[in-house]
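Can't attach files on this board, so I'm pasting raw text. These are the components:
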Amino acid sequence: MPHAGAHAEAQRHPQARAHVEGQQHPIKLYLVVWGWLFVLSAFSYLVDYFHLQGYLRWFLILLFMILKAGLIVAVFMHMAWERLALVYAILVPPVAVLVFVAIMVFESDYTLLTRLLFFGTGS
Amino acid sequence: MAESALTNTGATLTPPAGWRGLVADWASDQRAFKNVSWGKAMMWIFLLSDTFIFSCFLLSYMTVRISTPVPWPNPSQVFALHIGGTEIPLILIAIMTFVLISSSGTMAMAVNFGYRRDRVRTAALMLATAALGATFVGMQTFEWTKLIMEGVRPWGNPWGAPQFGSSFFMITGFHGTHVTFGVIFLIIIARKVLRGDFDRAARGFFTSRKGRYEIVEIMGLYWHFVDLVWVFIFAFFYLW
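---
Top answer:
C-alpha cells for the assembled complex are below.
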C-alpha cells in the first residue's frame, strides 16, 4: 500500500524520474516568467516615478519585491520542482534574518533617541 | 526488500513526497538530498551563506539609515539622469534592472538547452548572458564614476547623511563583484560547452570529475542568485 502511494506520487511529480536528464520544462514557461519579471520591475519603477509616499509606497515596494524574488527562486532556480528536504533546508534559515531585522530596528531606534537627546536635532 | 535497499542508492526506489518525504529524507541516515547531486547541493548551501552576507549588508544599511538624525539623500534624485533636457528619476537603475532580468531569462533558457544537449544554443545563450552581465557592470561603473565626480565618498556626500556613501559603495560594490565573477565563470563554462566537454564527459581541470551538462544549471543557480540579490537591493536601497 505505501508502495502504490509512492508510485502514484512519482506519476504526479515527474522530477523523481528526471534524475538523469535533469530539469526539463517548456521554454514558454521561462518566457512567461521573464515577461512577468519585466512587468513587476516596471511597476516598482512606477512606484518611484509617480512619487507614491508613506505606507502605500512601502507596501507596493515589498509586494513587487517578494513576487519577483518568488518567481526567480521558484521557476528560474527550479525550487518549485525540488524535494521538500532541499526546499526547507535552503528557504527556512533566511527567516532568522527577520529576527535580526527586528532586533536591529529596536537597537537603531534607541541609538537615534540617544543622539537626539545628547546632540540635539541636527548634525 | 532489504537487499534492494542495500544495493540501490535510492535511484530506482521512488522516495515518498511531501512532509513524509521531508522527514524520511532527513532521517534516512544516508544522503538527505535524494535527487540532487553534491555539486548542486553545495551551490545551494553556498548561496544560503551568501544570502546571510548580503542580509548583513542590507541590515547594517537599515541600521545606519534609521539611527541617523541627518536626512537621508533622496535616491530618486541622486540617481536621476538628464536625458533630452528633462530629469528622469532612477532611469539608469531601471535599465540596469531590466538588463539583469533579461540575463536571467537567457540563462534559464541556456539551462534548458543544455539538458537537451543543444551545444551551440546553450553556449550562445550563456555568452548572451555574460554580455548582458558585462553591460550591467559597465553601467554600474558609469554610475560610480558619476557619483564620485559629484563628491560622494564613503565618509560623506553633498546631500545629507554621510553613511549614504559607505552603504552605497559597500552594497553595490559587493554585488558588482559577484556579477563580474559570474561573467568570468559564464565565459569559462560556455567555452567548455562549445568545445563539447560535456558531450564526451571530459574530466574537469580542478576536480577531475566527468563533465556533465548539470554544471550549466549550477552556474545558472549562481547567476539567478545575483539577479535575486539585485531585486532586494533595488527595493531597499534605490526605491525605499
